[in-house]
Write a structure and sequence with these properties.
Elements (H helix, E strand, L loop, with lengths): L4 H12 L7 E2 L11 E2 L7 H10 L5 E2 L3 H5 L2 H7 L4 E2 L7 H4 L1 H11 L6 E4 L2 H8 L6 E5 L8 E4 L2 H12 L10 E4 L5 E9 L4 E9 L2 E3 L3 E4 L4 E4 L6 H21 L6 E10 L2 E8 L6 H8 L4 H9 L14 E9 L23 E4 L2 E4 L2 E4 L3 E9 L2 H13 L6 E2 L6 H11 L1
Parallel strand pairs: 1-2, 3-4
Antiparallel strand pairs: 5-8, 6-7, 6-8, 9-10, 9-14, 10-13, 11-12, 13-16, 14-15, 16-20, 16-21, 17-20, 18-19
The chain binds adenosine monophosphate and glycine (GLY).
Length: 421
């Protein structure tokens, strides 16, 4: 279920799974149509999704984005005994409510930034006095990645609170979480869980700002690479022990076991890794680089996860680094141009893979149909080589109304150059 670059990568990998005989994508996109039969189901119409699964003997449903998970689609499917990869509505609160996750961290002793939950402008202004700049303000609910404000001054923070309680993010902003600012490098860590067992599923680093050198507004992500060497095996073990394991155990103990992928956004601080936030689905575009590296049968792994048999499977990732560059439509993230023509040329000739994130076919021609349009993904023995291969593929594409960052992976490329000296 889904139509973005993350879902294209999942569909591409599921189609390669020896255990997957037939794959549908709903609604899918022109890229996914090469790997799956696209069907137009409305994810919010649970009865329609169930009816389709029953009449097509679907063995496993994989839900890509957070909105249908938070909306309880996994619960509706499971109630009909349709195996589903993705958490229940109650467990998806780990992404759906920032306050819920912060309270869980407090109960379970999980390292994270100190915080206060506030339910009115007055309460928030009062609570702000207990923090120092920079101020971190978060709309509690889903806000399409736009609900977080880092304010450098009290005035900016006050203005952001006015916006949030004034309805800028709708219902998502009816509660606001104010947090301590954490300093460090960010990394993403993924783990599958069936509610009890945990299967580490790789690391990645995203690039959230729209411009080179991490400038300009936040986006859904402009590029990523995996693995993230900053997350050393020692740090990864610490994240599992201090963050992932207590989360899974607490969710189970409290009667809302979490099943699916847990995506931990981490800040690697001087005091150790701390949780920034959880997402209840794969990262987009982090998923694209994970899928490039995965060598195991994804359908088998996801089915085992959905059926509570995660201990029966393993996940094998290749040793190569994968890197993806997002080609976005001019104007993204504020007002992306739609309809620009795209010619993929020989982008995939050298082994790169172009995942479709926001495209559609118009009279047989591929055109842009979203903010993030393509995810140009390549592999190499290290970040430097993967970056070169990805930008070679980017340069083979003709998309005159699009743009990309030119520095995806640059921090790690610099570290690799330093080490090579
Ligand atoms: P989120 O949408 O929750 O991922 O937050 C967006 C970005 O805000 C994160 O990727 C971080 O860069 C930043 N951020 C969120 N919370 C904090 C925090 N407590 N301290 C520092 N930066 C933060
Ligand atoms: N790339 C960030 C996210 O998927 O939330």
């Amino acid at each position: 279920m889904g139509s973005g670059g993350r879902e294209h990568a999942l569909a591409w990998k599921l189609a390669q799974s020896p255990s997957c005989a037939k794959l549908f994508a709903s609604p899918g996109n022109p890229g996914m149509a090469q790997d799956a039969e696209c069907v137009a189901l409305d994810a919010s119409d649970h009865a329609a999704v169930i009816a389709f699964c029953q009449s097509n003997a679907v063995d496993l449903v994989v839900i890509g984005p957070e909105a249908p998970l938070v909306d309880g689609l996994a619960d509706s499917l499971r109630a009909q005994n349709i195996a589903t990869f993705g958490p229940s509505q109650a467990a998806a609160q780990l992404e759906g409510s920032k306050g819920f996750t912060k309270d869980l961290c407090l109960r379970a002793g999980i390292p994270t930034a100190g915080y206060v939950r506030t339910n009115s402008l007055d309460e928030a202004q009062e609570a702000l006095l207990g923090f120092v700049a920079p101020y971190v303000l978060k709309a509690d609910g889903l806000a399409a990645g736009k609900g977080v404000v880092i304010a450098e001054t009290r005035e900016e923070a006050e203005a952001a609170l006015l916006d949030m309680f004034g309805g800028k993010f709708g219902e998502a902003g009816a509660e606001v979480v104010i947090e301590e600012f954490m300093q460090g490098e960010e990394a993403s860590f993924f783990a599958l869980t069936d509610g009890t067992a945990i299967l580490p599923f790789g690391s990645a680093q995203d690039h959230k700002r729209v411009g080179d050198g991490d400038t300009g507004p936040n986006t859904g992500g402009m590029g990523a690479y995996s693995p993230a060497p900053v997350l050393t095996p020692e740090l990864e073990a610490q994240v599992l022990r201090e963050i992932i394991e207590p989360t899974v155990a607490t969710m189970r103990a409290e009667g809302t076991p979490y099943s699916g992928v847990l995506y931990a956004g981490l800040m690697l601080t001087e005091a150790g890794p701390k949780l920034i936030e959880y997402n209840c689905r794969f990262g987009d575009p982090e998923c694209q680089v994970l899928m490039m590296r995965l060598e195991s049968d994804l359908a088998e792994i996801m089915l085992a996860c959905a059926e509570g048999r995660l201990t029966e499977v393993g996940a094998h990732f290749g040793t190569q680094t994968a890197l993806t560059v997002v080609l976005a439509a001019n104007g993204y993230p504020e007002a992306p141009d739609k309809g620009g023509s795209i010619d993929l040329g020989g982008a995939e000739a050298g082994g790169a893979k172009v995942f479709h994130a926001g495209t559609k076919l118009a009279d047989g021609a591929l055109i842009a149909n979203g903010g993030r349009v393509l995810n140009v993904t390549a592999t190499g023995p290290n970040v430097t080589a993967a970056q070169e291969a990805a930008y070679r593929a980017v340069d083979a594409i003709n998309f005159p109304t699009g743009f990309c960052r030119r520095d995806i992976g640059q921090k790690e490329v610099a570290r690799e150059a330093e080490r090579a000296k």
